[in-house]
Amino acid sequence: MKKIILMFCLLLVGLSAEAQKKKKNFKVAIEVDGVCMMCKKRIEKAALNSKGVKFATWDVKTHLLSLIIDENKTDTKTIQKNVAAVGHDTKGIKAKDHVYNGINPCCKYRDKKVVDAHDDL
Fold first, then answer.
1. Alpha carbon 7 to chain centroid distance?
2. Side-chain half-sphere exposure of 9, counting CA atoms within 13 A
3. Phi-psi bin for 53: left (phi > 0), alpha (psi -120 to 50), beta?
4. How confident is the model at residue 19 (pLDDT cuts 50, 70, 90)?
5. What pLDDT, on the 0 to 100 scale, is given for residue 24?
6. Is 46 exposed, middle or buried (0-12, 13-18, 19+ CB in 10 A)?
7. How much of the chain is helix, strand and coil, in % rounded to 5?
8. 20 to 30 A from 86, CA-CA: which of 7, 70, 101, 108?
């Protein structure tokens, strides 16, 4: 009988320890190229459509995409791939040329003239 009670207690301790494990959410920032508010909308949407992203905001001036992510569901590499898939370069992954060429002419961040035009705003 004592063995049964002991086994039951060990089982309860193990289950309670497992139940206390929480998902790990953490903050991370990724540098993403872009120049305007249309870029901001596109970048944030791509990030938020990534499984495990809880929060995403991109700053036009600093080019930083600030995120809160669930590390059990995603990683920065996956988010960078999703952002590149909509036409924006990151430090780790460059957008494919045909995707970049499909974005609005106002958003052509690789073109110095476009970047300079946005600096004047």
1. 44
2. 6
3. beta
4. very low
5. 80
6. buried
7. 45, 20, 35
8. 70
